[in-house]
Amino acid sequence: MSKRSTIFNTVRTEGAILPTDLLQRIVSGDATLEGLNPTDYHLSPGERLGEAATRSWNRLIGVWHTFRETADVLPAEAIGTRETRERWLLPLFHELGYGRLQAQKSIDIEYKSYPISHKAAEPVAIHLVSYKWDLDKRNPIARRETKLSPHALMQEFLNRSPHHLWGFLSNGHKLRILRNNVSLTRAAYVEFDLQAMLDNESYSDFFLLFLLCHQSRVEAKTEDSDGNPAPHDCWLEKWFHTSIKDGVRALDELRDNVQSAIESLGAGFLSHPANSALRAKLRDGALSLQDYYHQVLLQVYRLLFIFVAEDRDLLIPTDTPENVKQTYLDYYSTYRIRELALRKRGTRHSDLWQQLLLLFTSLHAGNPILGLPALGSFLFSTDSTPDLADAALANSDLLLAVRYLCYTHKNKLFQAINYRNLGSEELGSIYESLLEMHPEINLNAAYFSLSIVAGSQRKTSGSYYTPSSLVNSLLDSALEPVIANAVSGKWQNDSSETNPHSPLTTYHSPLTTHHLPLTTYHSPLTTHHSPLTTHQRTLCLLSKSVTPPAAVDTS
Length: 555
Hints:
Blueprint: E1 11-14, H1 20-27, H2 49-72, H3 81-98, E2 102-103, E3 107-109, E4 112-114, E5 118-119, E6 124-128, H4 150-160, E7 166-170, E8 174-179, E9 189-193, H5 194-199, H6 203-213, H7 235-271, H8 276-284, H9 289-311, H10 322-332, H11 335-343, H12 351-365, H13 395-406, E10 407-410, E11 413-416, H14 424-434, E12 437-442, E13 447-452, H15 457-461, H16 468-488, H17 503-506, H18 515-521, H19 534-542
Parallel strand pairs: 6-7
Antiparallel strand pairs: 1-9, 2-5, 3-4, 5-6, 7-8, 8-9, 10-11, 12-13
Helix pairs in contact: 2-3, 2-6, 7-9, 7-13, 7-14, 11-13, 14-18, 16-18, 18-19
């Protein structure tokens, strides 16, 4: 459902080990990014990378079609591993500079065996399986293979092996780049859809594959203390750390942008001519400045939540008819507003805010016409923002706030924030900074700003950001068994209306408003190891009661 597209058609990233903006820099030959010279790929100084990639592409097109013909006539009972490797994947890696990959025995680490299929001269793990084997599912036909899925096997191996940081995993139809990933709450990889790439002859995406998966990218130039090739000294690892540094700078800017977005909304509500009742409440003390700040802050939380849910295709159930999904995307999603924020300054009309209010109401009560389930959470309830429920907001003020939330400014250009791969740690650090903020207001000038006041109400209220490590432990021990029992059908007859004590209805979280959704979506139970549908994941998340702002003081 996501409309947040990139220049790539058959490439996707999960977990941001190599984020999309870095991939775009690589494929465009960014001169500020090291490692992209022809000599870095062991080519002659006068040879171009595009020429080398084109030669490999032309050879592999024929190899792919031959493999497809072989697979089409393969008996149904055949496993297909040998055909996948010999007819397709080994020639692919040969073209990427690895020569003839050698099969290897299982690798033992602390009395556990990992049947990683192939060995390269470089410190990279390469696991090649049959095209009949889904990378995220346990092997349904192999007899002595590990119980883990190929992806889980490779990830666990990389996490435990002292000699490998990076790995390539492929079943012939898809190829993934993985890295040692200490966080097991969300899969992290770059995936190439080889089948779509070759069938549709998407050379531009193959060029990126060539640049990322070439032998020179994982070649170690130094050795560790034991004389083994040092996996930290390769181009993929250097690019990984470059993305981290860029991410830190972008996060610092996003943190400032969230503060600016809150200020824009706070001042926008105060300045709109239709909000005289709101100004009167603030003037006579019926609405405190702190409560007003909380309600403005919740509007930002709502937007952040929807940005993440939309970009991860988690907002609408997967079985929703396509025409309904398209209606939502074209007319009611935040994509349109996000795109307008980049191109328009906006007017004093308030139709865009009215559109968002309709979306908030639909997410709370449900809207079958738009395919939106009834989430019933406090976050989207009008009770959470009673003084802003009927308030107006000019398009110009809303677009300014959305521009702050959705774009960073770099090299005089706006770059879209990738909410699909933005994790709870990133948004958690933003929330942490908001805990120190104190609002200031001038009603006559319609002025609203936030200033840093160290300590103060934060310490007295006990408001602190909960780190992911603690949240993950809570979810593993408390929430996942509840979800598993619900999915298995133990509570399938217990609706929230007939059974007020249903665990999926009464689960209360002490977490922050935004941290719970991000963490729950990243749970292993909801990614590669569970039959949960998107609709079930969403309901398991948002049917919970969200702690009101009064209980989670954000000052």
